[in-house]
Amino acid sequence: RVAVVGAGVSGLAATKCCLDEGLEPTCFERSKDIGGLWRYTEHIEAGRPSLYPSVISNTSKEMSAFSDFPFPEHFPVFLPNALLLDYLRRYAEHFSLREHIRFGTKVVSIRKRPDFATTGQWNVVTEAGGKQTSDVFDAVMICSGNFSEPSLPLQCFPGIERFRGQYFHSRQYKHPDVFQGKRVLVVGMGNSGVDIAVEASRVAAKVTISTSRGAWLLSRVFEHGYPWDMILNTRLMSLIKTNLPGPLSWWLINYKVNQWFNHENYGLQPEKSWLVREPVLNDDLPSYILTGRITIKPGVKEFKDNSVLFHSCSEEEPIDIVFFCTGYTVSFPFLEESVVRVENRHASLYKYVFPTHLQKPTLAVLGLIKPLGAIMPVVEMQARWVSRVFKGLCKLPSHSVMEKEVNEKKKNQVQWFGLTFDEVLKTEWLVYLDTLASYIGAKPSVLGLLCTDPWLALTIFFGPCSPYQYRLGGPGRWEGARQAILTQWDRVLKPTRTRVPAGSSSSFPSLLIVMGFLLLLAAVIFGF
């Protein structure tokens, strides 16, 4: 019996993967419906993520799909939150997940049983309708997300206590009406910060973004009009990024992100450009900077009564409203602190999933990671691995080996991503997926396919690493995986080619022919 906490993206994947392995999941969801972060409500609910109605996914539908359940072909390439919620409901219905979910049930506490050292079991106390119930479970999957507790470090902003205007955390944002005719300051430059600034600039008198670090900005519409992640998240690109010397890899990233526009000219160049920052996805910001709707400023030095002073700027900027887009705090209020150790907003977890010190590997945390790509395939892969660990089909290394890797990972993350806010949660998307897939025997073999199915092999290597690749073989093999991979560009172009007849799905097949020829030529040359 497995307790699953939360019925968002991670919780649904966890429930489904448990069923696939013949386990008995019970999913506890404190609200009245599934969807988690992607279920919009007009009012902010305690303990739940809060979404503004204009949110659109930052990753494309083909790269975001669960690996055995493609999005409908008529869905747009990047999804408004309502359509993504619709997809999750279709997923839950298709795999009959709702019957395993207890809605309106809050998890109060999860504690080790007295005989945990031998059984690995947990006491799970839940509350529904004012009544508490205690149940025993053999394992626990925590899928409660990390967008519920806002981080608002007011102590880092001198003078905020005397500021006479209004200030909010981005979690409180719903509609731009509040900005009508106001002078607005947005502190922080993540995806939410830029979204809010762009929306505010359409009705506000003036909008300023304050960022101490800068950010790389990507458009959803990338080279030749294709989705950014279908161009950048390929096996070929991953091979280049992970094997090039550091300075050369950093130069390549700089070159790629500056092809759209020169970040330095727009005041956006990251403070330390050699660090691999999580890119911000927004299609409007550069033009809004060009037209004067939005101004970029350095970090806040001090707040005054009705104004703000920035670092390296001598003049005060008058403002009426401040929105702090300063992220969220990781917490597990239903767990004892000793179970999952959280330090500097980072939980020490093996492969971002398992606590390293438990006597039995019967508790896992899903979704506490920031991959440079779509989150849904990642949490699904985590769930596939975890369910097989719970079942005893996959073994974890020793405690000392896991602890050593976690510490090494932290050092590497600092070197590549920096150590500010949640950078330690970031990781290379495809490398991480491949690592977990190899544990369960689901990692595709490009060389093996080159001999048996060369067209598919070339598509997998040079094309986007869509999640269906991880259903070609191994446990949970899906018969439709090959067809889903070969038709992925058709589903991308279907909702956009609405005026002209559908022709060739993309220029990608011709690229495959060229690259396949070059690969064959190289093989012949090296063979001799």
Features:
single chain, 2 domains, alpha/beta, FAD/NAD(P)-binding domain, five-stranded parallel beta sheet, 528 residues
Description:
It is a single chain. This protein has 2 domains: 241 residues, FAD/NAD(P)-binding domain (3-Layer(bba) Sandwich); 133 residues, FAD/NAD(P)-binding domain (3-Layer(bba) Sandwich). The protein is 33% helix and 17% strand. The protein contains 17 helices and 24 strands. The strands form 8 sheets. A 5-stranded parallel beta sheet has the order 3-2-1-7-22, covered by helices on one side. A 5-stranded parallel beta sheet has the order 8-17-9-10-13. Helix 1 runs parallel beside helix 10. The termini are far apart.
Short description:
The protein is α/β, with parallel strands linked by helices and 528 residues long. Helices cover 33% and strands 17% of the residues. It contains 17 helices and 24 strands.
Give the beta-strand count.
24
**Separation, N- and C-terminal Cα atoms:** 58 Å
What is the top-level CATH class of the largest domain?
Answer: Alpha Beta
CATH architecture of the largest domain: 3-Layer(bba) Sandwich
Average pLDDT: 90
Describe the global form: globular
**Strand share of the residues?**
15-25%
- How many strands, what sense, and barrel or not for the largest sheet? 5 strands, parallel
> Strand pairing plus helix content: what structural class?
alpha/beta
Domain unit count: 2
Rg measurement, Å = 24 Å
CATH topology value of the largest domain = FAD/NAD(P)-binding domain
User: Which ranges are low-confidence, i.e. pLDDT below 50, for 5 or more consecutive residues?
Assistant: 414-424
Strand order of the largest sheet: 3-2-1-7-22
Subcellular location: Endoplasmic reticulum membrane
Protein name: Flavin-containing monooxygenase 1
Cofactor: FAD
Family: Belongs to the FMO family.
